[in-house]
Amino acid sequence: MGVHFETQAPTTQDKDSTRAPRPPRPNYNKLHAQPLPVKAYPLPPLIPHNPFSILHIAIVYLSHVISSPSSHPQDLLCAYFSADTRSFHVTDEITARTLWEQGFFGKGSLSRSEPAWLERERIRQGLVLGDTSEEITRKRREERKQFKNERARLEREAIETKLAEEATNHSHSNGHIEPSLAPDLAQAKSAEEIDGQNPTSSPAALSPGRRGSPLGKEELIAVPPSVVASDVSSPHLAQKVIINQEHLQLTAEEAFFLVYALGVLEIRDPATAQPIPTSRLFSICRSHSYFPPQPSSNLVPDDPFLLSYVVYHHFRSLGWVVRPGIKFGVDHLLYNRGPVFAHAEFAVIILPSYTGGYWSSTAELQAKVKKKTNKSWWWLHCVNRVQAQVKKTLVLAYVEIPSPVIGGEEGITNEAGEVTDIGRFLKRYRVRELILKRWTLNRNKE
User: For 38-65, how does the pLDDT look when each residue is reduced to its tens digit (9 = 90+)?
Assistant: First the structure.
């Protein structure tokens, strides 16, 4: 007859009682109130049962017609192009905070996402007390790890207690202990004696925190103990100035969207500090999407930057916050409001589609298309499985590739092959979305 054990994991109340109170979170709704670095002035709502609302709408509309408020900042934001990293650098701290807080553009060069190196360095040197977002994330992971260790310990203790009770009851009834249970009890007893005699034998005993914790409470504090005990507001610490060594790094898609679509950013040449024209910037982004960079004469309609930017512009125009998805093996991640509010809901993979008649006109083009579109079902299964594990929905974004534009044709390009009318050039592309979900038998029976 088998033995059935019932273990009870720590409840939410037990978990909350042993956990230290978390620091208050920043007011993200206020920090990220603007979804983009431009201002919108909508008309007031229409209230049908209130006739004065119509008058209010008319007054606001006439005021906007007579004196239209500016939606763009007076001075354009500035960034510099870096050919070495094939990215765009924002060195001004105010500009970097503006782009991050109003649209989540870019990432800190010395941070995982939000540029917070200066704040982390001030905390490390004891100039400021507190925790950065990265420190808070690290502590929460440690708390989850400690909770799992504590739950496993309680489960082991419950099993040992159940074995001891059953062995005692069996010995009282038969007058002896069953041999099959004796080794387990002896092993449990020896383990308890070892734990009691040698507290440093387990990893949890090395720290002053609670049992099952790899790190103690003192080790989780980012500020050194000497700084906590001293007067942080002393003149010596207040006069120390730390030079910010971090800059905001923009991808080519983000930089061109801010320049071309929103018109709030200008890209300057780091050598001359002169603004780069939009048409020239478009060629630079396309050329540096290859490694090594290709000249403008060798650019094709399906170069990596064009495919990525068309999809980026498509989802940004629909209101999504688009972030790089290299962490999960995809091209883009789609957030509803931003990474500080919730995890990404969708993961996007870009696939070129060659449905035009030009791409099947010759055998050479057909072989080229087959090579670029050849994907195995193993690859698709692996990508979809990864997204299912991280609770994201996979989106296949098919980009319809148009035929190449011959120099000077339709006024889109000049004789040198550079695009002069970017709007007409991008209108030739189309995006189709296909949502792919993993089918499992126990969840999709109907």
Answer: 998 888 988 989 888 899 999 999 998 8
Helix intervals (H) in 266-376 = 278-287, 304-317, 363-373
pLDDT, tens digit, for every residue of 131-140? 777 777 788 8
Task: Report which residue type is found at 214.
Answer: P
Cα angle vertex 327, ends 336, 388, to 5°?
65
Is the entire prediction scored with pTM above 0.85?
A: no
Phi and psi dihedrals of 268, rounded to 5? -115, 150
Instruction: Report whether pLDDT(381) > 50.
Output: yes
- Tell me the C-alpha distance between 2 and 187, whole Å: 20
Cβ–Cβ < 8 Å for 46, 54: yes
pLDDT at 218 over 50: no
CA distance linking residue 233 with residue 7, whole number of Å? 51
Interval 194-210 mean pLDDT: 40
Lowest mean pLDDT among 181-190, 248-257, 415-424: 181-190
> Which residue reads 């980009």 in tokens?
399
User: Which pair of tokens denotes residue 212?
Assistant: 């099952």
pLDDT in tens, 103-135: 999 999 999 899 989 988 988 888 887 777 777
Q: Where are the alpha helices (DSSP H) in 198-343?
A: 217-220, 225-229, 235-238, 252-256, 278-287, 304-317
HSE-up of residue 133 (Cα within 13 Å, Cβ side)? 15
Nearest CA to 263 out of 441, 93, 110, 73 is that of: 73
pLDDT top residue among 21 and 381: 381
Find residue 267's DSSP bridge partners: 79
Nearest by Cα to 33 from 91, 101, 82, 86: 101
Q: Which residues pair with 419 in a beta bridge?
A: 413
Q: Is 126 left (phi over 0), alpha (psi -120 to 50) or beta?
A: left
Distance CA 277, CA 286 (A): 14
- The maximal CA–CA distance of the chain, rounded, in angstroms, is 103
Instruction: Tokens for 332, please give them.
Output: 């883009």
Q: Give the CA distances from residue 225 to residues 57, 220, 221, 237, in Å, rounded to whole numbers and listed in that order.
A: 60, 11, 8, 16
